[in-house]
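> call design_seq(struct)
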């Protein structure tokens, strides 16, 4: 079937409109999946002389999405505007959803203007100062102001201390979990703990093999990157240079990678405690991962594969886009489970 230019343009426009409702920045694999589905559903659109039948559709979608983003930028779409590079001076890094975020930079809900969001934020500031704040009211206000908060965090890239001054309600276990759910559409603690439970047998076998081969000390040193023990030092000294990590309070000496008698776990970002009184180390790690998403932080460079493992294997967030190293580790763990 010969397709006219106008018909093809109409098809691409409708596909682009549907894609941008999910993400403004689809990967090439995403667009390939769309092209395959289009030809599978409408065989008359197969490309004559092409073995695959969808190859040119994918390239057309790549160019169409670029043009569509230009139109969205002109219309004032926040997610596209925040990625606009300046023509003069230093350019900021392009801010795209990189860790499987579904609602990376959402539009404000109907009826939620900037003025109303500011009033809601001021209401929250007063509410969190109460001895017993209304948690359900805070839930509603945090949901209503989600778009403005993401715009500030992603667009302005403020220090964590500035975010805490403006949005103190965010810095609690309840609200970090809720914000993570809004961003990724997954339950933070449930996904993390269920993922750990499923992987524990394989991890123990792999760790046992590593210990037998003499690599146990190296694994312990990797685990210790995110934790620090206090031996009489002040907190300021202990947190000096600690951009992301956990402080673990426990009884008695530390004989293994993680202590058993933990009485407090605190989350540290940019040398400041942002959350404390967490009940155990696994909850601390879950909250750490949630804070990275909620505050739009990069993974620590020396532990990027560890956090990629937590994201893609433990949390099952975009597992099909994992690096070769994590893909190989996941396959090895699956063999242990069989």
């Amino acid at each position: 079937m010969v397709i006219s230019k106008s018909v093809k343009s109409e098809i691409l426009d409708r596909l682009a409109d549907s894609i941008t409702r999910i993400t403004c920045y689809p990967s090439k694999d995403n667009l390939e999946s769309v092209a395959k589905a289009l030809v599978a559903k409408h065989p008359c659109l197969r490309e004559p002389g092409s073995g695959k039948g969808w190859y040119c559709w994918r390239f057309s979608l790549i160019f169409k999405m670029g043009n569509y983003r230009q139109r969205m930028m002109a219309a004032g779409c926040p997610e596209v505007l925040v990625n606009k590079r300046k023509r003069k001076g230093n350019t900021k890094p392009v801010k795209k959803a990189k860790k499987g975020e579904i609602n990376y930079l959402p539009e404000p809900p109907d009826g939620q203007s900037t003025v109303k969001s500011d009033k809601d934020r001021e209401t929250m500031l007063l509410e969190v100062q109460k001895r017993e704040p209304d948690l359900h009211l805070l839930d509603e206000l945090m949901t209503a102001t989600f778009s403005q908060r993401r715009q500030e965090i992603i667009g302005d890239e403020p220090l964590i201390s500035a975010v805490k001054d403006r949005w103190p309600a965010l810095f609690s276990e309840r609200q970090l979990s809720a914000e993570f759910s809004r961003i990724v559409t997954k339950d933070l603690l449930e996904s993390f703990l269920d993922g750990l439970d499923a992987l524990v047998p394989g991890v123990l076998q792999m760790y046992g093999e590593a210990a037998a081969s003499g690599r146990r000390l190296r694994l312990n040193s990797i685990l210790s990157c995110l934790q620090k023990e206090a031996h009489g030092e002040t907190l300021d000294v202990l947190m000096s240079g600690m951009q992301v990590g956990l402080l673990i309070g426990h009884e008695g000496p530390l004989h293994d990678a993680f202590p058993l008698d933990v009485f407090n776990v605190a989350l540290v970002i940019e040398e400041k405690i942002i959350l404390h009184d967490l009940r155990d180390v696994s909850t601390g790690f879950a909250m750490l991962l949630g804070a990275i998403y909620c505050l739009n932080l990069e993974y620590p460079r020396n532990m990027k594969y560890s956090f990629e493992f937590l994201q893609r294997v433990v949390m099952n967030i975009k597992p099909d886009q994992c690096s070769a190293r994590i893909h190989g580790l996941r396959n090895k763990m699956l063999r242990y489970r069989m």
